[in-house]
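Lecture 7, part B: from sequences to assemblies.

Below are the input chains for today's worked example.
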Amino acid sequence: MVKVGIVGGTGYTGVELLRLLALHPQVKLQVITSRADAGTRVDQMFPSLRGFVDLQFVHPDEAHLEACDLVYFATPNGIAMQQTRALLDAGVRVIDLAADFRLQDIACWEKWYGMKHACPDLVPEAVYGLPEVNREQIKQARLIANPGCYPTAVQLGLIPLLQAGVVDAANLIADAKSGVSGAGRKAEIPALFAEAGDNFKAYGVAGHRHLPEIKQGLASVAGAEVGLTFVPHLTPLIRGIHATLYGKLTRDVDLQSLFEQYYADEDFVDVMPAGSHPETRSVRGSNRCRIAVHRPQGGDTVVVLSVIDNLVKGAAGQAVQNMNIMFGFPESMALNVVPLLP
Amino acid sequence: MVKVGIVGGTGYTGVELLRLLALHPQVKLQVITSRADAGTRVDQMFPSLRGFVDLQFVHPDEAHLEACDLVYFATPNGIAMQQTRALLDAGVRVIDLAADFRLQDIACWEKWYGMKHACPDLVPEAVYGLPEVNREQIKQARLIANPGCYPTAVQLGLIPLLQAGVVDAANLIADAKSGVSGAGRKAEIPALFAEAGDNFKAYGVAGHRHLPEIKQGLASVAGAEVGLTFVPHLTPLIRGIHATLYGKLTRDVDLQSLFEQYYADEDFVDVMPAGSHPETRSVRGSNRCRIAVHRPQGGDTVVVLSVIDNLVKGAAGQAVQNMNIMFGFPESMALNVVPLLP
Amino acid sequence: MVKVGIVGGTGYTGVELLRLLALHPQVKLQVITSRADAGTRVDQMFPSLRGFVDLQFVHPDEAHLEACDLVYFATPNGIAMQQTRALLDAGVRVIDLAADFRLQDIACWEKWYGMKHACPDLVPEAVYGLPEVNREQIKQARLIANPGCYPTAVQLGLIPLLQAGVVDAANLIADAKSGVSGAGRKAEIPALFAEAGDNFKAYGVAGHRHLPEIKQGLASVAGAEVGLTFVPHLTPLIRGIHATLYGKLTRDVDLQSLFEQYYADEDFVDVMPAGSHPETRSVRGSNRCRIAVHRPQGGDTVVVLSVIDNLVKGAAGQAVQNMNIMFGFPESMALNVVPLLP
Amino acid sequence: MVKVGIVGGTGYTGVELLRLLALHPQVKLQVITSRADAGTRVDQMFPSLRGFVDLQFVHPDEAHLEACDLVYFATPNGIAMQQTRALLDAGVRVIDLAADFRLQDIACWEKWYGMKHACPDLVPEAVYGLPEVNREQIKQARLIANPGCYPTAVQLGLIPLLQAGVVDAANLIADAKSGVSGAGRKAEIPALFAEAGDNFKAYGVAGHRHLPEIKQGLASVAGAEVGLTFVPHLTPLIRGIHATLYGKLTRDVDLQSLFEQYYADEDFVDVMPAGSHPETRSVRGSNRCRIAVHRPQGGDTVVVLSVIDNLVKGAAGQAVQNMNIMFGFPESMALNVVPLLP
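Predicted structure of the full complex, as structure tokens:
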């Protein structure tokens, strides 16, 4: 049994981790921290967990995280980097669901996240936890940078094209739409039901923190810097990301085969039949990414549709998938759930 | 392994049965029928099932249901009663998720459902599949009338009061709110997103088919006819029923204890702490009913709040629970899932 | 032209007042205050007002409200009572959309609102601004206590019954459902899209501030204290209240005629044909209350369905209606809009 | 007063026309037809119109449309073309809100709409009713082809760029998202609340009927055929279209000025300040199109965000705007409404 600690369990990625880990046969949920809600039972805050999680939130100072085998950080950006060194030194492995270790370029990270990095020397060691790309490194990793939600959906959709070298890597477009839970469980006016409901808007067109993360991942596959226009949108969903990806084909290729072969051995990437339009609800509550690839009117523009549940494959589920890989469990352990439809 | 057939698997209760049964360790999904969609792969209609259900819809004439151990009817009303006798004669057990066997009073059934009953002689044998009331009879049953969604939520909320004889049984009120999936996967204008979205309304105030079903169940507990005003409402949820139940106390009683004791041994009824307000999402995707009981301002009106997922405890989940009881499996087998929140 | 000031214009009642007043032919919008957003253009915060409102928010200290003919308070509770005396002394008339002047019983107000009242001597003068009840007093009023949203929907539904003395006034039930905008434009977790969306719950069953307000209004019509159980619910609507009201008939009566006659001369109360189920969207954006009255199965329980838009007839629209009455304008001036459906 | 008839008034564009025309000071609503609902009062089907529209649906055979000055067709495709000639011959002007007269290339129309055109000789006379482009021709027109919803949002966003010749016209992308009312008030499963709610998907990637319409419009401005990839998406909104438009700049230009100048005199196109992200709700219920133009990271990709209410500027509102132009009324008559927010 892996003794697991969760730092910052009162947000959506935290409760989602709890949902998945509560039924994981190889996990002992040891401790979950919250500064603001220490002493509160977890299932009082999240009654959905009644009968499944018999813990209360513990103040970080009393959490004894060093006694865990693995600690998840489901915290705002900037927290994990404060505590990771001590945990690693104590032999604890770490999965950070925030962004602290996602960008290898420290200057770039500091620019986009607006703070000084607390442990730049640990960044090179961090493995970017996209199993479909980095599975081997994840097995050995002490420190995982769990990918962002948009970056997961966008990279899984574009990587086969870049790997095969069949698109103009200088002119990619990612038009992505996210459910509101992507904004987190934070009391902010734009995320209110009466603001985000029955409403649709783009945001961050000038620049979004996930842009450098996506570009870093795509560049490592393409072998060179890529040109990407990334436009995120807020859509009145609770969960779900739909990325619509556009590229210019540089040579003729059987796109359907390309994708099917690329993901042939992947449990959590489902290449749908030609002509499909994956729906976000088809992955609701599950760790799957579903992808369809189109070439409208037989032209030279490829359109890839990629959907995930932002809280699962886009966050907590991928984190559990990473843990499964790190600890040698079957990769789909506790993740083999049927999406909730309708 | 129980060989299971599903008649009419293209509606919401059908796909929900598939979601639950796909991971049931003691079930072999043998056949699923659809007249209109015979030949179509199940996971083409419901991509959420890709990787979980490797069947196609079969025409009823070619289904060989008699080779099953158990057949679920997830059909419109009036279908199960046509086929049940032949199945029972062939030794197949039957769970009808529609209403054909719910009312013991045939004349009453024929009035509310507007058709002649095809096998009134089988009705007395049918066991009303509310495990919290009829567990023992369910064990032996060949034929289960799976309760309606509103009746499940309302009965579970009122039965402890009637059993204890602490409310005026002649003056009960059930103000119930349902998500739109309760209307089924049928192409009807009032269930359109642009009609039911951002909208709230009562319906069927003059009379609803679930009224006699609820009254029958309550009367059997109360030992006499009850007086009930039942007002259903349509609310812009996908899943969920919230029943707000009102009764007049006839004597002083510790309501919290009464409910806690009544449901102490029930896996799927959760009496919440005093003062709670259960949310429909706290049971989303799960077979639980959560109940809270209030006595506003210490007066003599009791208010019970009862929530279920109409497709699970209100339909497919309860049907699986009934199957588990019938076949001697642990009652929560394949039903032990954490609700999806948010 | 009436020179109008609005105090606290950044909430939903504020922007709704602006929507209605921007096209009012007899209103000159003179000033709108906001402590936090002074200096910001109104249409920057609310782009829906671009081209209609050419003002910026002004700090309260620089608002010169005493130069207005009428000031609306669209503020949290407890603000209007601080400023009303000075305005009245300066000859300005006041409509408070918050609760400061709604309860004539000061002790009761202080208990429910948890603060000391700043000007109890002004309370007796305040007219409760429900035009269908108090039209004559409103004409002369200097100070209007604009009714709460639930109280408007509930009172309009129950008053005809109490006025006619045909129900047991000691045992009324109001099961009310509100859209999320009723919680205001405040950054609070329970009102987030990912919390309130696809979810339904009761709240405040033990007691809600609108209970004493409703009881006060009903008592004044019934001529005696009434017994009322009031259960509010949060429903995933943006706008709309649906009140389902239950009473015990004490004598036989033609309910349809009773309601039609009672509201025969009212512009903003629409008694629907017998058998109707009014939808919240049928009043979306409009100042109408639609009511249907039922007597299920011919029993002695009367069920009244009453719907309003909580931001219009439940707040800003009623406030404009009150202004129209106070200043001798046609009562429906600027309120004669067709509800937005779908 | 213009005597107006509406053919096919039971869909969403029909009820929206009624909402707008009911308060138009120069319109006399003379007749509204429905084959299926003849004899039903309009406000029985749409209670939102109670008090505003005192008509019943009339069978087309008894409609005497030739006595109207103007007839709107709010019908499925293929109806208007059957009746237009007779109406024009009778001196009646026609606005078709369907697609019958939108494409000048008859073969192209017949391919995309799957039927033979009934009056190809009238097509050249039809004026494409996008006032911002064709205002002068609209003034004189007998027959207006009212633009589609997507084509309105997309063309208004791209035309300034093409007109100025600053983008590569061979490589445009329109990623468009529509609310569900765009699918019409038709009983179809994909438009059910439980299907389209909490869900997001692309559709028609292989080809959508609005593609040739958009390309025709853009080509007429660009002076040459354009290359456009158009991907529509269904989003859980009731109303609203958000088009995210991508183009490659061919030369440096002040995009903000370009758009502001292009639309300087337009009542219904609002170019928002630099850096804005227009929300669909900011035009809910109104005839405005709001546009923002971005150049992310100062690169050579221009991103235009364009939002409309698909039922107003995308259908009924634009039709009324066209009528106003045709009959010499102020262009914004009856359209000067404040969007409903929240």
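Note for the exam: The CA atoms of residues 95 and 318 of chain B lie 10 Å apart. Keep this in mind when comparing with the next example.
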